[in-house]
Specification:
Layout lengths: L1 H7 L5 H14 L5 H25 L1 H7 L13 H20 L3 H18 L11 H22 L8 H21 L1 H6 L5 H5 L1 H24 L4 H17 L2 H20 L1
Helix pairs in contact: 2-7, 2-13, 3-5, 3-6, 5-6, 6-7, 7-8, 8-11, 11-12, 11-13, 12-13
Length: about 270
């Protein structure tokens, strides 16, 4: 059981849950308790499917990399059992999404299909620059933000453009960093990820540039309501970030932006 929980990568879910909550707040929907529970169950199934199928298809590279985070590569879960586990989560999520109507079901199918296309051969977008970071920005970024809109029948407007761009942007950055980290094993496996095509140093520079550019993208959403606290915290945070330049700093900042987006929407 512990191995299957590791396969889900629960420690990586916090940001995606925050993104879905932001989407829920932006949608203006007021779901019932049952609808809220089902919504989060659908999200759990999507995240579980995406992470587990990724580990399933990454066994070769993770063995080369000596990864201890992939329980399949470590021999703790058999390949067949991992695939059954991932597909079971996918079908549960599909069944639950159907309870919100055909539009929600079709959207969830698109989310799942993109996640599968990203990981599973022969398409396996994660190994094909630039489809690797573009698809990651969608299914682990914008698609999650939009999920509440599709489930609860809310409409997207131009006012949602900046949060959508923010979610896509923050879905791209971890992909760059993952490819830089896995560069050696991916190169040995003959993959053509962004880091393999552009080189790990260039890819890391692009990721850092995107981090530094993020405040410029999101600030207009807060200026509209004179949200001075966001401007001040951004300046302070990025002053620290520029001097320290630590990866963890970005994820603290990302969490801060998500919280402030939610507060800004509710005010």
């Amino acid at each position: 059981m512990r191995a299957y929980l590791r396969l889900l990568r629960l420690n990586s879910w916090k940001g995606y849950f925050a993104l879905s909550i932001l989407g829920l707040v932006l949608s203006g929907a007021v779901p019932s308790l049952i609808e809220t529970i089902v919504f989060f169950l659908i999200l759990i199934c999507f995240l579980g499917t995406s992470f587990s199928i990724n580990d399933y298809t990454d066994v070769t590279e993770d063995k080369l990399h000596g990864s201890k985070t992939n329980p399949i590569a470590a021999g703790e879960i058999e390949l067949r059992n991992a695939l059954v586990f991932s597909l079971t989560l996918a079908f549960i999520g599909l069944a639950l999404s159907l309870s919100f109507g055909i539009k929600a079901f079709v959207y969830y199918v698109i989310m799942l299909a993109t996640a599968f296309f990203y990981s599973v051969p022969p398409l396996r977008f994660k190994t094909k620059f630039p489809l690797d970071f573009l698809t990651h920005g969608l299914f682990f970024g914008s698609f999650i933000l939009v999920l509440p809109f599709m489930l609860f029948g809310a409409s997207l407007t131009s006012a949602h453009l900046i949060p959508l761009l923010f979610s896509f942007w923050t879905g791209i950055i971890p992909e760059f960093e993952n490819h830089v980290r896995d560069y050696e094993s991916d190169k040995q496996a003959g993959l053509r990820t962004t880091a393999c095509v552009l080189g790990p140093e260039t890819t890391a520079r692009i990721a850092n540039f995107l981090k530094l550019l993020l405040p410029i993208i999101v600030l207009p959403a807060f200026f509209a309501k004179n949200f001075l606290i966001f401007v001040l915290t951004s300046l302070v945070f990025y002053a620290v970030y520029l001097f320290k330049y630590k990866q963890r700093s970005f994820y603290v900042y990302e969490s801060l932006v998500l919280v402030l987006f939610i507060i800004n929407t509710l005010l």
